[in-house]
Amino acid sequence: MDPVAALLEIASLLERERASRYRAKAFRQAAASLKSLPGDARTDPVRIRAAKGIGESTFAVILQALAGGIPDYLVDLRGQVEPERTSALRSRLRGDLHAHTEWSDGTTPIAVMAEAARALGHEYLAITDHSPRLKVARGLSAERLREQIPLVRAESTGGLTLFAGIEVDILDDGSLDQDADLLGELDIVVASAHSKLRMDSRGMTARMIAAVSSPLVNVLGHCTGRLVQGERGTRPQSQFDARAVFDACAENGVAVEINSRPERQDPPDDLIAIAMDAGCLFSIDSDAHAPGQLSLIDHGAERAENAGVPAERIVTTWGRERLRAWAE
User: Fold this and answer.
1) Band of the pLDDT at 82, cuts 50, 70, 90?
2) 163: helix, coil or strand?
3) Where do the domains of the chain lie, and which CATH numbers do they carry?
4) Measured in Å, how far apart are the chain's first and last C-alpha atoms?
5) Are 7 and 33 within 8 A, CB to CB?
6) What is the pLDDT of residues 185-214, one digit of tens each?
7) What CA–CA distance (Å, rounded) separates 294 from 214?
8) How far apart are CA 264 and CA 258, in angstroms?
9) Quick one: average pLDDT of 316-326?
């Protein structure tokens, strides 16, 4: 087995199961280090072991791959990581409107996320790093976002369109955490609440309606903010008048995100039913913070299919030109 391919597959599987970002990053760094060696050095154990970024575990993987076998570490992971879920709806998804890079709290450069999206057969991917208020996630200032936009669009190659976007924080009064003019330059704007999630129902309802009523917003991200499992523990869902919020989404053409991360499962099934009844559009998104997490859209697709969401109301089943026209 090609050692670089083995290291990258391990990294991707670790990312999919939301393992420590440092473990996955170590295997990606080792792959990059091995790939950068001269051709003859890539099969020389002494020179490989001396290369920066190659440690004991990654070195063992490389040696076993060079010997012609599938590395033990990879065999074990393939048996442990839950395989991708298959559904009729998953095969109809054309892209993803919510993904992060190392510009905020993701783990890899824009180009690596783009490469992973191409490997999944995506037609488009929106890069939506965080906005300034979310300092813990290295949210992008207006200056950094302006710097990022052309770099994102420059990766639109090989059949993949990269949309310049943002996951903009919904502030306490429902305003958006970024300059309006700059938001207007973006292809995709996902609006999400990340703070004061226990706000009283009346205040949270007004806050969310104000956000989705903005003509700059395309998608309402993980609307309840809940966590149902995972290393971050659990968190109850925000309380708001779901019918009023989803009526506002439908009126303004804003898609309700079906967030595919297993620890979120957001919105809950009962809220998906309310959004369907309100006439909402939906967007099945990975909320990926690493390349291997882009494949998590299979979870969102399965939930949407089980909830009976019609494919034609899911914007991420649309081709890129229809998607772009809607977003504009």
Assistant:
1) confident
2) strand
3) 3-80 (1.10.150), 90-327 (3.20.20.140)
4) 45
5) no
6) 999 999 999 999 999 999 999 999 999 999
7) 28
8) 10
9) 97
